[in-house]
């Protein structure tokens, strides 16, 4: 049979367990105290990096490393500039737009001609039917300019009104504030035309002065 420990032995063992538990508690308290003291010392004696960068002027914010503090004069100048930007609108000078010049065709379809237009030795376009308008302002220069109309006879299939002089293809040089259909007769600088009753090619050059 297994012999049970005596009461005296049990009391001695319980006392040893209590002493051991107290020793462990004291050791834990000492470790916590040491850790807290080290943290307090490190936090009060060492500079820590900021957790979040904040904008200049925030209460309690520290200046960034190597930051240049603006002088009073610079701050005043910036404030004055912002005030002017918000309260004062400087009106820009109105742009001056000169007159436009364009070549326009009108009249009848299929009169048997194609009229090529050239301004200052630069080709503009071919006109063989009404309803076309081409801006030639960029091709002009101050003072005297030249415009050439080169009319070439087409095949008979392109003349639906052969012999009818009343059927005309008219090409005009026009000027005005903008390229438009409702111009005044006084806006027409010059006019060139061919009719279905004609049957020969023709070339004519005209000169004109560009007005502002």
Q: What does this 3D model show about the protein?
A:
The structure is a single chain. With 212 residues, the protein is an alpha+beta fold. 26% of the residues lie in helices and 29% in strands. It has 2 helices and 8 strands. The protein has helices at residues 7-45, 72-87; strands at residues 100-107, 113-119, 122-127, 133-135, 143-153, 168-176, 188-195, 202-210. Strands 4-1-6-7 form a 4-stranded antiparallel β-sheet, with no helix packed on it. The protein has a 4-stranded antiparallel β-sheet with strand order 3-2-5-8, with no helix packed on it. A hairpin with a 2-residue loop joins strand 2 and strand 3. The longest helix is centred in the N-terminal third of the chain and has 39 residues, at 7-45. The chain starts with 6 loop residues before the first helix and ends with a strand.
Keywords:
rod-shaped; 2 helices; 4-stranded antiparallel β-sheet; 212 residues; alpha+beta; 26% helix
State the gist of this model.
This protein is α+β, with helices and mostly antiparallel strands and 212 residues long. It has helices at 7-45, 72-87, and strands at residues 100-107, 113-119, 122-127, 133-135, 143-153, 168-176, 188-195, 202-210. The N and C termini lie far apart (134 Å).
Relative helix content: 25-40%
**Structural class of the helices, strands and pairings?**
alpha+beta
Tally of helical segments: 2
β-sheet strand percentage: 25-35%
Could you describe the largest sheet, including whether it forms a barrel? Answer: 4 strands, antiparallel
Overall, the morphology is: rod-shaped
């Amino acid at each position: 049979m297994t012999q049970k420990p005596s009461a005296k032995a049990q009391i001695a063992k319980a006392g040893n367990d209590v002493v051991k538990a107290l020793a462990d508690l004291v050791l834990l308290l000492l470790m916590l105290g040491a850790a807290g003291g080290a943290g307090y010392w490190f936090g009060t004696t060492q500079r820590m990096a900021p957790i979040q960068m904040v904008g200049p002027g925030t209460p309690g914010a520290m200046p960034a490393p190597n930051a240049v503090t603006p002088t009073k004069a610079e701050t005043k100048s910036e404030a004055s500039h912002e005030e002017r930007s918000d309260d004062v609108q400087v009106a820009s000078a109105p742009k001056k737009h000169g007159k436009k010049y364009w070549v326009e065709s009108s009249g009848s379809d299929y009169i048997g001609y194609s009229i090529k237009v050239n301004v200052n030795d630069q080709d503009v376009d071919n006109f063989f039917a009404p309803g076309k308008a081409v801006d030639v302002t960029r091709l002009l220069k101050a003072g005297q300019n030249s415009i050439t109309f080169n009319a070439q006879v087409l095949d008979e299939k392109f003349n639906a009104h052969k012999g009818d002089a009343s059927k005309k293809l008219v090409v005009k040089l026009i000027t005005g504030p903008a390229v438009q259909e409702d111009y005044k007769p006084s806006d027409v600088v010059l006019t060139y035309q061919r009719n279905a009753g004609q049957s020969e090619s023709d070339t004519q050059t005209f000169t004109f002065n560009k007005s502002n």
